[in-house]
Write a structure and sequence with these properties.
- The structure holds 2 protein chains of 2 kinds.
- Chain A is mainly β.
- In chain A, 7% of the residues lie in helices and 36% in strands.
- Chain A contains 4 helices and 38 strands.
- In chain A, the strands form 10 sheets. Chain A has a 5-stranded mixed β-sheet, with no helix packed on it. Chain A has a 4-stranded antiparallel β-sheet with strand order 2-38-37-36, with no helix packed on it. A 4-stranded antiparallel β-sheet of chain A has the order 3-4-5-6, with no helix packed on it.
- By secondary structure, chain B is an all-alpha fold.
- Chain B has a single domain (11-93), classed as Orthogonal Bundle (Cytochrome Bc1 Complex, Chain D, domain 2), CATH 1.10.760.
- Chain B contains 4 helices and no strands.
- Chain B starts with a helix and ends with a helix.
- Classes of the chains: A mainly beta, B mainly alpha.
Chain lengths: 563, 95
């Protein structure tokens, strides 16, 4: 059956225009139906649902021992590789902060390369690593964002720049690192910069011209619904953060996009009393207009940098005996949320890691119940705080298996001694945080995190493997039986998804902090991941890693040796 | 406690150290750590040689390794204030 599906995919591939994929192809990407073209990976998250799951099963627990590299291409970049490749009709598109590269999937040869230049001091307004997370492809054009706050369109065949639109002024703290989303024919981007006191937004662009179609601020203006959750006697709402720096997911049937919204600014909360909508929330938006259809706030008046930008994974789950269309998030604040994605109704919110700032989430009010720890932090006392501001999970993406209904994630186990400092006046383009965040002594046998399989509704772990040294990065499931992920120390690994046992590894040339993908080419399954240490966790661990893990970005592609 | 003989001869004024501490707290502490106590992956400024002022000024102004240039934002007197703060860190916080 699967062979037939693959064969029909090849036939379809042969008949497809090279001009560029359509909205239908985007909708079917990663969907488990007959229209799935396994040759292609067209969306961030391997499907609009961001499940990072593939039904391909040539590479499986029995065959993975024959998995070998078939090509490697240097990306000529030391800033770090954090992107997910896009694959279409035998061509792979890869981005980093400097370059966009098109690669022949069959040979690993570079077809074209486009290089960006941005002012050398742009990284000053990038809080967490100079990076780019990938491109979007639509109608023969490749779209990407730039560190100095532009969005650009390239000809997918030649790499020629077709248009470039300024999103915002980087000197005011705005930057872009995320992969764009194409939803219902609209090119959609978010923004980074809450650590610099921006007022966040999500933009809709005309993919043909680069003309802005709409801008939805993540903090409502005076007079708009939601602004009453900000002080009315100061301008905190104008400098209140609310980034959107991870690509939203999309449900084409409901025609709703789901964007996680980041932390408020400054992190210290004394100048911004109120819930501070829509920071640390999820927004369900119409792609054509940017209209907010519903919202849910995970962390009202967030005092902890509990940014909610992480992937919102879309799936169907049986909840109390009834199938529900849900959006799930392993939130930074330590709770695993399941929401009805048509209405925003909160269905479940269970702690999945050690949490001391809140006792639980009240399902009736939808609000976390804060503890004395939270009060101590708000009273500006140095306080042992779990999870730390880095979260119970950072942006390393989780995967979801629609057949077992389990999430697979790399989670973090870290508390810190956290303290709010006195808030000082806003200065354009400068840090706007006002906190101290010092490490706790860590017992030698205390893990820094886990890779684990989690039930979304109970947060129970089906299995849990402790990490003792460095973080592991985004997960990707092949066939539901193999879990691929990578380590900062460079190993690309495959685990048995049923047990967490490691079955295979390959040492790449640098550290891995990117998202693997799998696809077929001429009927054969491939796996690709970028290697190139960079980003926030390289900044954090550089002293420990610098003599062991060299910088330098490259693309690694793997396939099975014949029997 | 005085830092060392040569630096002590030109000890920075307390106001300059305070100004450096404020600039540090806002712009530098996210990477170099609160009060220089938790540098993580960035340079441990407590270990910066006190006789290499020029190297400090150039690195901050023009950038070095992963650190972006700050010369476009901070004035020369701001960077001098940061240097004064770095020189004083040991006497303020201990080593």
């Amino acid at each position: 059956m699967r062979l037939l599906a693959t064969a029909s995919a090849i036939l379809l591939f042969g008949a497809t225009s090279v001009a560029g994929q359509t909205l239908d192809e985007l909708k079917n990407d990663g969907q488990l139906n007959d229209a799935l073209k396994t040759d292609n990976v067209l969306t961030y998250g391997m499907g609009y649902h961001q499940q990072r799951y593939s039904p391909l099963n040539q590479i499986n627990p029995k065959t993975v021992k024959r998995l070998v590299p078939v090509w490697n291409l240097s990306l000529d970049n030391n800033w770090g590789e954090q992107a997910q490749p896009i694959v279409y009709n035998g061509v792979m598109y890869v981005t980093n902060a400097r370059h966009t590269v098109a690669i022949d999937v069959g040979t690993g040869k570079q077809i074209w390369k486009h290089t960006l230049d941005w002012p050398a001091d742009t990284p000053r307004v990038v809080c967490c690593g100079v990076s780019n997370k990938g491109a979007a492809l639509y109608n023969g054009r490749l779209y990407r964002t730039t560190l100095d706050a532009h969005v650009i369109a390239l000809d997918a065949k030649t790499g020629k720049e077709l248009w470039k639109s300024k999103v915002a002024e980087w000197k005011e703290g705005y930057s872009l690192t995320l992969a764009p989303l194409i939803a219902n024919g609209v090119l959609v981007t978010g923004i980074s910069g809450a650590e610099f006191g921006i007022r966040g937004f999500i933009d809709g662009w005309d993919p043909d011209t680069g003309k802005q179609l709409w801008r939805r601020h993540t903090i409502p203006a005076r007079g708009e619904k939601g602004n009453e959750t900000w002080p009315q006697d100061n301008n905190a709402w104008q400098i209140g953060g609310g980034s959107a720096w991870i690509t939203g997911s999309y449900d084409p049937q409901l025609d709703l996009m789901y964007w996680g919204i980041g932390n408020p600014a400054p992190w210290a909360s004394q100048s911004r009393a109120g819930d501070n909508l829509y920071t640390s929330s999820v927004l369900a938006l119409r792609p054509k207009t940017g209209e907010i259809v519903w919202h849910y706030q995970f962390t009202p008046n967030d005092a902890y940098d509990y940014d909610a930008c992480w992937e919102l994974i879309l799936a169907e789950l049986s909840v109390n005996g009834r199938m529900r269309k849900v959006a799930m998030q392993l939130n930074r604040n330590g709770f695993l949320y399941v929401l009805d994605r048509a209405t925003g109704e909160l269905l479940s919110a269970k702690a999945y890691e050690k949490v001391n700032w809140a006792s639980h989430v009240d399902l009736k009010t939808g609000r976390p119940v804060e503890t004395d720890i939270a009060k101590s932090i708000r009273d500006m006392k140095a306080t042992e705080h779990w999870p730390s501001t880095r979260g119970a999970k950072n942006w390393q993406h989780a995967a979801f298996n629609p057949k077992t209904g389990l999430l697979y994630a790399n989670t973090m186990h870290e508390g810190r001694m956290y303290k709010h400092l006195e808030t000082k006046p806003y200065e354009t383009g400068q840090r706007y945080m006002f906190i101290e965040n010092l490490p706790l002594a860590r017992p030698a046998d205390q893990p820094i995190g886990h890779i684990e399989a989690i039930d979304p509704l109970t947060a129970e772990k089906k299995w849990r493997v402790p990490l003792m040294d460095f973080q592991i990065w985004s997960a990707m499931l092949a066939s539901g039986e193999l879990l691929f992920t990578g380590k900062h120390t460079g190993e690309f690994i495959a685990l048995d998804a049923a047990t967490g046992r490691q079955l295979w590894q390959f040492q790449t040339g640098s550290g891995i902090n990117a998202m693997p993908v799998t696809y077929t080419y001429k009927g054969k399954q491939y796996v690709t991941v970028l290697s190139g240490i960079g980003g926030l966790y390289w900044n954090i661990n550089r002293e420990q890693l610098k003599d062991k893990v060299p910088q330098g970005g490259s693309v690694w592609t793997f396939a099975l040796l014949p029997d | 406690m005085l830092v060392c003989g040569s630096a002590a001869a030109q000890s920075p004024a307390p106001e300059q150290i305070q100004r450096g501490a404020a600039i540090y707290e806002r712009n530098c502490s996210p990477c170099h750590g609160a009060r220089m106590q938790d540098p993580q992956g960035a340079f441990d400024l407590r270990k910066f040689p006190h006789n290499e002022r020029e190297r400090f000024i150039v690195a901050v102004t023009r950038g070095k390794n992963q650190m972006p240039p700050w010369g476009g934002l901070l004035k020369p007197e701001d960077i001098e204030a940061l240097w004064a703060y770095v020189l004083s860190a040991e006497s303020i916080y201990g080593r």
